[in-house]
Design goal:
Blueprint lengths: L1 E5 L2 E4 L4 E8 L6 E8 L6 E7 L5 E3 L7 E6 L4 E6 L8 E9 L12 E2 L3 E6 L1
Parallel strand pairs: 2-11
Antiparallel strand pairs: 1-3, 3-8, 4-5, 4-9, 5-6, 7-8, 9-10, 9-11
Length: 123
């Protein structure tokens, strides 16, 4: 499985961005994709996740109501729509995939990772 994440950029506070994660070689629908982020000097943290089968969505409390995760199975693509961005959302965003139907918030549960895309929110 190879993951490609893109769509990051520089945006002002209150603005929006949409990240995309394309998964090639995904062998099963019994899988979940998560978005994580890592700010300088901080640990990588869970942002949102979605199950490929059923489409159940999960969010970190810090982004609920502002971010939306979705997928287009035919395109093997997961999106992260980020609205009302705040300076504290600044980080490198990574997408990751795990086999097994559950979304986990732990980095260790994911076997495949994309290269990361930088999101910078200016105040």
């Amino acid at each position: 499985v190879q993951l490609q994440a893109f769509g990051g950029g520089l945006v002002q506070a209150g603005g929006f961005l949409r990240l995309s994660c394309v998964a090639s070689g995904r062998a099963s629908n019994d899988a979940a994709t998560g978005w994580f982020r890592q700010a300088p000097g901080k640990e990588r943290e869970f942002v949102a996740g979605i199950r490929w089968s059923g489409g159940n969505q999960y969010y970190a409390d810090s982004v609920k109501g502002r971010f939306t995760i979705s997928k287009v199975s035919a395109k093997n693509t997961v999106y992260l729509q980020m609205n009302s961005l705040k300076p504290e959302d600044t980080a490198v965003y990574y997408c990751a995939l795990r086999y097994g139907s559950e979304v986990h918030s732990s980095v260790q549960q994911y076997n495949y990772w994309g290269q990361g895309t930088q999101v910078t929110v200016s105040s």
